[in-house]
Amino acid sequence: MISLRNRWLLLGALVLLFGIGARAWGLTDEPMWLDEAYSAYAASKGWHFLWSVVPAYETHPPFYYSLLRAWTLIVGDGLLGHRLFGVVAGSIALPVVALAARDAARASGLTDRAGLIAVAAMAAASVSPVLVEMAREVRPYPLMIMAYALGTWALMRIAGRGRIEGAPYAAYLACSALMLWLHNMGPLYAAAMGLALLVVAWPRNARDWGWLVGGHAIVLLVWSPALIILLDQAPMWIKATWLKFSGHNLWRRVTLIWTGNGDGLRAAVALLVLAALWRVRREPTGRRIAGALLILAIVPVAVSLILSATVAPVFIIRTMTALAVPAMLLIGIGAGGYAGKVKWLLWAAAIYLLVDQGTADVDARIANRPQEDWYAAARWVGARAKPGDLVYAYPNESALPFDRAVRDLGLPLKTRPIPGEVPVLNPPKGSWYVSGSRGVPSLDQAHLRGIATDGVSRAAPTIWLMRGGPWAYDKGDVFLHELEAAGRLNTGHYYRFPIDIVGLTVRRDGPEGAGAGR
């Protein structure tokens, strides 16, 4: 006979394999989108670029890009190599969620049901739409999910001990520092972790206060270089961001983090979370754990909403996906913490949640992918381009995902970023930054005219003007009109949001032919 413990281990292993498969399925089907291409570009440029140039134009610390560079030096810098980094981190988070849920159950007086709670929490995490999708991104989010899961586990261990000391506290501090260095929203996560720590283990004497203050002082010291970068970059982001904050259907958009898309899913999660809170209410430690998990799940997104409404909008869903982790623990406790007749209702809610979320993952990939089809764009140009043609990327950041797609497809296309490679930190006079990035300028008409008539442009039989978001970076189609005025005809147009490509071939039917200008 297999022992109960081994049964849970076997079931957990099967759930883990399923979760890994969900994250790895079709991993290279989609091209890198713009933000992913930024990551790959920075990681490919070398250590000096990462730590001396990236801080000059990026709001995020260069730490993630450095980890990505180290990873790709080992496994390769192709699309698969880049994506595997996130899959590994996202997959590691799954057993960590299970361990955190197990320790939360034990500390809450649910030792006899800890195995079921652990497996239920990991099962919910394995199909969580945001956790699955973010694990596939070449961005810091998978590592943030993993670090937040490890930090949550450390807090559950501290709750069981009731003291701020030892290896769990050291792990908590390390995870706090890691969150701070991975993303410019890291301070919100670290603050939530700090509040949760005070809830599960309020210092009781001078020794505890010493550990608390000393440990966090070290974390702040470690974070200080990243803080300097954030303070330097934040004013530009606040001044020039193109994001707009909207309260339309806000509660549904925000609850996607914990539930997935659908009011039925929201109802199932609400039932399971309320059941978890009710189940642990009798034990003092259980109440502290419930309070900590609510803080971990809610405080960062609440603060980000306030910042978005009052200071500058942020990408709330993407940057807050790690908040799904503490919600998975509550879902696990709700699904596995009860015996008797009520368990059947909660199990039904949990099964509905797992099936519906898993189906939603499949549907989303079939219906809504890719979000930026740079493969289709590259193939469209590649099928029409002739020797000597050039692809002009305006703004210059459009070259990043396009060049990655060209590389993946093996196409012989040459790209000219306008006015130069990312970042352009000292653009020509009269330029301005449309977004919060200091490396992506828009040019005034005079400089665009100069590019349209310079020697490189004159020599190209066809210029494929590629614009990502022309409504922002080339309002009024100024560059397009300057190229036409320089003696070119519009001979083809590709558009699939946000990619806009226009083929401009030299006119041969009059004196305004090749090289003619105003």
Structure overview:
The protein is α/β, with parallel strands linked by helices and 518 residues long. It has 23 helices and seven strands. Strands 2-1-5-7-6 form a five-stranded mixed sheet, with helices on both faces. α8 runs antiparallel to α9, α8 runs parallel beside α10 (186-200) and α12 (250-259) packs across α13 (263-279). The longest helix has 35 residues, at 206-240. The radius of gyration is 26 Å and the shape is elongated. Mean pLDDT is 93; it is low at 510-518.
Highlighted features:
518 residues, alpha/beta, two-stranded antiparallel sheet, 23 helices, 7 strands, elongated, disordered C terminus
Number of strands: 7
Report the end-to-end length measured between terminal Cα atoms: 88 Å
Any idea what the radius of gyration is? 26 Å
Integer average pLDDT = 93
Provide the succession of SSEs.
HHHHHHHHHHHHHHHHHHEHEEEHHEHHEE
Proportion in β-strands:
5-15%
The number of helices is 23
For the biggest β-sheet, the strand order reads 2-1-5-7-6
Overall geometry comes to elongated
- Helix % is 55-70%
Main beta sheet, described?
5 strands, mixed
